[in-house]
Specification:
By secondary structure, the protein is mainly alpha-helical. The chain is 49% helix and 10% strand. It contains 6 helices and 3 strands. A 3-stranded mixed β-sheet has the order 1-2-3, covered by helices on one side. A hairpin with a 4-residue loop joins strand 1 and strand 2. Helix 4 crosses helix 6 and helix 5 crosses helix 6. The radius of gyration is 23 Å and the shape is extended. About 3% of the residues have low confidence.
């Protein structure tokens, strides 16, 4: 029995195989491999579209929590939830280690702030939190291409600097 499918690892593996073929220098083989991936994606996407069109929305709802199913639906633009809802679902699945600051759909950039540590003094590393966020987003919201993670306690807006006004010269009539 093979290991359960993981969308992130599978995508990386496909890229690795295509890169190996490209490294051979044989352009025809590389082009054929890329075409094969596209044809298979179209084929499986069409099958998923038929399945989802025949399912009652209530029957599909429990499947949206499954990372593999959710990633396949998002990959083929069949996911019934919008990207912001899927981002929220992904972040909720992490157990609240981050606060959502914003998402720029045009750039694919998600801005987050790491949650304050629970007071144990151990705190999660920024890299560990970022990796966990990126892994879950790959399944639920592949539209997110960049994650910007601010440390806990960082202000979400720049501080306004208030100073004294320069004194104007006094005019004597």
């Amino acid at each position: 029995m093979s290991a359960p499918a993981d969308s992130l690892r599978t995508g990386l593996r496909v890229e690795e195989v295509l890169d190996r073929l490209a490294d051979t220098g044989d352009r025809e083989v590389c082009a054929a491999a890329e075409e094969l991936v596209r044809v298979l994606m179209d084929f499986y996407g069409s099958g998923l579209a038929r399945i989802t069109s025949r399912l009652d929305p209530d029957a599909l709802a429990p499947l949206l929590d499954d990372e593999l199913v959710s990633s396949l639906l998002a990959l083929h633009d069949l996911h019934p939830e919008d990207v912001r809802t899927r981002i929220a679902r992904a972040l909720d699945s992490l157990g609240d280690p981050v606060e959502l600051l914003g998402f720029d759909e045009a750039a694919g950039t998600l801005r987050l702030r790491a949650a304050a540590s629970g007071g144990c003094g151990c705190g999660g590393s920024g890299d560990g939190v970022r990796e966990a966020v990126e892994a879950v987003l790959a399944s639920f919201a592949p539209e997110v291409t960049t994650v910007e993670l601010e440390p806990a306690g960082a202000p979400s807006q720049p501080l306004l600097q208030i100073g004294t006004r320069p004194q104007a010269p006094v005019r004597v009539p």
